[in-house]
Design brief:
Blueprint (H helix, E strand, L loop, with lengths): L1 H5 L2 H36 L3 H6 L10 H7 L7 H32 L5 H10 L9 H11 L5 H5 L6 H11 L4 H9 L4 H12 L1 H17 L2 H6 L8 H11 L4 H33 L4
């Protein structure tokens, strides 16, 4: 109470002013990030003529773009592309969670020769440009006979160096006493990992799952190299063809962008609590 009484009226006004400026800045940043999304949705609900000639933020609720998008021929099967992208993104996310969690737990808790060197090499791969790996990965996929299949898009990204780094940082924050107690009770390393570590790591796993899904869903360059026939395309690669075929039809282009954005936005809305918790906790310890 004495501390509150010692504060001058000027200090209270300064705090209010700083808070007001912070909210104003956050409001402006919100507009900057949200405005393109709103414009994309509004434009997708206009006819092509209105999208080209009318600069209005009010949609006319014309579904011309969506009708053309969903009624495309066999050379542009948008729904098939959507399904392919979902299968690839979901499958790659599961593979990343499995491989990264096991590797991260070994690097965080188990002792073996050259552990730190191995971890350093894994982190070092984060600095390798993805373009450098295109030719080696293509050769491997070709030898496996996976070219022009969804396996070629899904499997190469299953080993995530970022996932290993991120989960290792999180695992080091978990109390080691829980594992020691389980070992005394006769639990194996596999039981500790599956019954103690993973349940306690839901925020980090949800964060990594969302980030992995987002990266895979938006991947464009690699699918273009390994997928040859239109029915096998993922959505980003397929929408590029659709855009070339309708290079002035902004209604169709924006409708495709909306369709591609919906799964990621829904995923974030459901997982945002875990994402915020996972990022904040994993960043506490180096």
């Amino acid at each position: 109470m004495a501390a509150i009484a010692d504060r001058s009226p000027g200090e209270g006004q300064n705090d209010t002013l700083r808070r007001a400026l912070s909210y104003a800045l956050l409001f402006l940043l919100t507009i900057v990030f949200v405005a393109p999304i709103v414009w994309m949705v509004v434009t997708s609900l206009k006819s092509n003529y209105e999208a080209t000639h009318s600069f209005s933020w009010i949609p006319t609720f014309d579904t011309e773009g969506y009708d053309a998008l969903l009624n495309t021929d066999s050379s542009t099967p948008v729904l098939r592309w959507f399904l392919n992208s979902f299968i690839v993104a979901a499958g790659q996310t599961v593979l990343i969670l499995v491989t990264a969690s096991m590797a991260a737990y070994a690097l965080a808790r188990m002792e073996f020769p050259l552990k730190n060197v191995l971890f350093g090499l894994i982190v070092a791969t984060l600095f390798v440009p993805p373009l450098v790996l295109i030719i080696p990965n293509y050769v491997v996929m070709d030898q496996l006979g996976w070219i022009d299949t969804l396996w070629a898009v899904m499997v190469p990204g299953a080993a995530s160096a970022f996932g290993v780094f991120f989960l290792r940082q999180f695992f080091t924050l978990l109390p080691v006493e829980l594992e020691e107690a389980a070992l005394i009770d006769g639990a194996s390393r596999a039981q500790i990992f599956t019954r103690i570590i993973l349940p306690l790591s839901k925020p980090a796993l949800a964060t990594l799952a969302m980030l992995s899904f987002l990266v895979s869903w938006n991947d464009f360059l690699w699918p273009v190299y390994v997928l040859l026939n239109p029915p096998n395309f993922t959505l980003p690669a397929g929408l590029a063809i659709l855009q070339n075929a309708n290079n002035v039809n902004y209604a169709i282009i924006m409708a495709g962008a909306v369709v591609a954005s919906v799964p990621v936005l829904l995923l974030y809305l459901f997982a945002q609590r875990y994402v915020i918790e996972g990022v904040s906790r994993a960043g506490l310890k180096g």
